[in-house]
Amino acid sequence: MKKYLLSLLILSSLYLLPSHALAATKPTFWQVQSIDTMKYSRDVARQYLNDPKYDDTIDAQVKVISETGATHVAIATPYDAEFVPFLDRWVKAVRKYHLNVWFRGNLAGWENWFNYPDLTPSEHTAEILEFIKNNPNIFADDDIFTSCPECENGGVGDPRQTGKVKEYRQFLISEHDAVRKVFDSLGKQITTNYYSMNADVARLVMDKDTTTSLGGIVTIDHYVATPEKLAFDIQNIAESSGGLIVLGEWGAPIPDIHGKMDEKAQADWISKSLELLVKSPFLIGLNYWTNQGSSTALWNSPQKPKEAVIALKSYYHPKAVDLTIKNTAGRPLFANINYLSRGYSTDKNGKVSLPWPGYSSEFSLQVTGYKTQTLTLTPDNKSLLLDPEQKNWWYQVHLLTYRLSQFIIHLIK
Prior knowledge:
Helix content is 38%, strand content 19%. The chain is an alpha/beta fold. A hairpin with a 6-residue loop joins strand 15 and strand 16 (373-377). Helix 3 packs across helix 4. The chain is elongated and about 80 Å long.
């Protein structure tokens, strides 16, 4: 009898079985979740340029960064030929741990790093293009390449002092266009428009036309006293520029801004900031400055993480709530979900994994042929069954078949 019932169950519910299961991916809150290594990837680049033992330091730092849920490691090594071998060592370590690189270096002459001579804007663009063409294999799809971070600190000058706002805008746009063309010619899918700048420079320079010319992104390096101020400024700059925001640098404590902080105070500041930032519809990426070697450091050493690492990881590598969305006839549904101002969608099996911020949050569910619903996400959410707005005869057949299959399962058990 059980054998007969099992055969009937299989026949009656074949239409419910997926052809194959999709691999689950870990959900994240932001497209880019980066940690910066400037103090070890730029400041000591010449010192350890020819020291093979330094590879152990690089590996140890990248390894612990990878364990936080970061998607990118920001590397600030200069782009000059002298430093390419050192940069390559960092990049290889990042690839080893299956992460992407955010290239946040520059040509050393732009800010006179390592006593390199000054560069003009035209020289800068020409040498950046040469660097890319000469080192195509150092880049991988989904990397980020910033050709001139905080560009106001060199060549073109700070437009707040020079008054040359138009010239500053023109330089960013023309260099970006040139860089974009080179990567396109190489067949590399690289993000090239994260031109980080001081937030006050962004307020001056990034009008809506300029933002549009740079792909709708404004990247700010921003240190402020309170998490509330950080969230407010992101919204303010997004609204004035018409763009989405990336935090090129952020963190605490900066002594002149935050005063002294012990580990707990630092962790609390980071937690509060991320709690606010995760709710922002404008922020798409962030890069914490730095991993080690600064007042804002997350680690004293790779073996000695601060409490701040736990705070950051809870948002970079959040817990997930796995949902399955079906109709009342048991068929998986393709649903579009708006959650914390982010868009998600179910796979072919009606499954979706949503990042959990640690508190109940509303989400809206849109499925063609079904009423839009606003629901509350909690860790207890497992599956949702939806009724279509119109139940035609074919749906009634599916419903009857599904109920029959469930009855058979109950009998077998």
